C-alpha cells in the first residue's frame, strides 16, 4: 500500500470499479456514494457522539493514528492522510450542544472534501491544546474485548503519555464503551445505508442459489462463491468475512467449504456471508434445495425442520425490546426454548444423540459497523456486550441454528441455519430488508 491512509484505501477499493469504467456523466455514482458517506459522518459526529461521550462521562476523546497504522475508527471520523502521527480530538466544552472537533496532523484532498473539523492544528500543539481545555477524563482507545475500541498501539500510547505529561496522562481512561456506543448507534442516513447493504446481500446470494449459477452435477461450491465475489467487484462493494462460506448441509458429506465439492441433485446448500456498503456490513444466511428429477419441493421432513426454525426465530423477536440488556434478552429466549416440549438448548455443530429432541443454538450478535459488530450482543461469545442495553437504532443479526431429525435422512439430525439483520425500534426488532422466509429451489 502507498503512503495514502489505509482508512481511505478501503473506500477507494470499493469505489474503483465504478470510477475506472465510468464516462464523465457516469461518475455520478462514485460522487453520490462519497456524499452519502460524508453525511453519515456528519450525522454521527453531530448527533451520536455528544450523547455517547456524556453518557460515559468522557470530557475529551483522543483517537491517534499514524502512517500505516490507522485506528479502526479513523475512516468513520473522516480518514485523511497522516505523515507521522495524527490525532482526532473531541472535547465536550459545554456539557450540552455539539462537541468541539479538532484534527492534528491530518489532511489530504479526500479529508478536505468532507469538512468535519472546527480546528486543524499541528500534533506539536497537543499538550497546549489539552491543557487549555483541562478535561477531567480523557478517553483513549484501549479495550478488554471490543477490537474496534483497541486501536491505540503500545508505542502510540507511550508517545501520548510522554507528550501530555504526568498530570494529564493520569486522566486517561479506556473509551471501550464510548466507542461501542458511537459505532452501534445510528442515524437515519446510517440505517438507510445498512438497508441498502442488506438488499445487495440478499439479491446477490439469492441469484447465486439458482439455476442462473448452479448446474447440478457440474458446478462446485467454490465456483458459486467466486461468482458472488465477482458481483461485489462489479458493483464496487466490499464483504464482511472474505470469501462466502458455501457448503452442503446434507444428505451427503459436506466437503470443503467453498471448494471443489460438486453440487448434486438432492443437496441442501447453505451460504453464510455479508456485504460491505460504505460504512455498513451485513451478516446473513440463505438455504437452497437442489431438486431431483420429478421433484417440485424439498422433502417434507426438510421443510418441517425449516418451518420449525422460523418459529424459533419468532421467539427471539418476541423478547427484543429497547431498554433491556442483550444478555437478559438472550436469557429470556433461552428460557422459552428450554420450556418448549421437544426442544433443548444445544451446542454449535454438536447436537445431542436423542432423536426425540431438537437442539437450538442462538447467537444473535451485533452487526452493522462490522459483520460482527461493536454494540449490544445477544451471544455468549460477546460477554461484555451482553451487559449493554438494547436501544432504538441497535442493529442485530438474528442468528440461530436448529438441529432436528429428518426421516428422509435416516433420522439423522439436519442443521437449519437462519440469519438476517434488523434494527431495534420502540416496537421491537424490525427487519432492514425482507428476511429469509423459504428454502430456495435450484432446478
UniProtKB/TrEMBL annotation:
Q: Which Gene3D superfamilies match?
A: Creatinase/methionine aminopeptidase superfamily (3.90.230.10)
Question: Could you say which residues form the signal peptide?
Answer: 1-27
* Highest rank taxon of the organism: Bacteria
SUPFAM superfamilies per the UniProt record, alphabetical:
Creatinase/aminopeptidase
Record flagged with keyword Signal: yes
All residue ranges annotated as the Peptidase M24 domain in the record: 194-425
Q: Which UniProt keywords apply?
A: Signal
A Pfam match = Peptidase_M24
Question: What is the recorded name of this protein?
Answer: M24 family metallopeptidase
Which species is the source of this protein? Answer: Sphingomonas rustica
